[in-house]
Amino acid sequence: MAVVLAKSVFLFPGQGAQSVGMGRALCASSPAAARIFENADEILGYGLSEICFNGPKEILDATEHSQPALLVCSIAALESLRETDPTAANAANSCAGLSLGEYTAMVYSSAMSFEDGLRVVRERGLAMQEAADAQPSGMVSVLGLEDAKVAELCDAARQSGEIMQIANYLCPGNIAVSGHAASCQRVVDLAESFGAMRAMPLAVAGAFHTSIMQSAEVRLARVLAGVEIRLPRIPVISNVDASPHFEADDIRQVLIRQVCSPVYWYTSMKRLIEEGMDHFVEVGNGRVLRGLMKRINRRIECSGVPE
Predict the structure, then answer these.
(1) In this structure, how many other beta carbons lie within 10 angstroms of the beta carbon of residue 84?
(2) 25 contacts 80 by C-beta, under 8 angstroms
(3) What would the mean pLDDT of 67-83 be, rounded to a whole number?
(4) Of 65, 137, 183, 209, which is the active-site residue?
(5) How many helices and strands in the chain, by DSSP H and E?
């Protein structure tokens, strides 16, 4: 891993970054990482490690499995780093996570224990899967359009009684929209006429970050009410408003709101850069967040754990 600079940010990936084989090499080389996966299997009551290491892909991709899998893999990567370089593992001045990854950031910041974070994420995944199963819906990645033009595309695709809206502001020219299945198909069909380079349906269970997830929000609120949330030792930038929160009740509320609210990733990263953060470390599986940062600001140094 590259040396972590003084003003550094740890970033934690969200759903979609999972892949079969995730964590296998990490556990083979790090006893601390292996212990995290073993603990996760015990907490969850099933073999998450087997699903991560060997699949099959359709099981790993299920929301109820991919969400805990990504949290566990990121925490295992941190523990592996802590074995070899404890200073680097604790060097972040701020942290953030994309959607599901915000829970990993809460664990890293000590606002939530690993055990509680994993249990909450398991319930979050189950609740979001159930909400998605209740009505056909989905998400579409729209490339090459400005925010305002994507909003116009959503308006054109949405018919009476349907939901279709921007769900993830990822980086300039890369926005994910969410809504009912029919409106998702219209987004794909209409995107080229609006000037988009490409519009691709995403392999997710449903319309995350819209009111279609309302039942999941209610269920998550009940779960979070019973979880101890402590003062974060470093700021965690919220997806909901691109701001840090330090009171337990405020943290609970932004985590609850996140289920149905858009993700302001681009705004969050701009804020951190404006605050002088000059090194971003993606912790966990994949390179999605590093790719987004290249589109946000190519001059920012990025690295990964594991590389």
Answers:
(1) 12
(2) no
(3) 97
(4) 209
(5) 14, 10
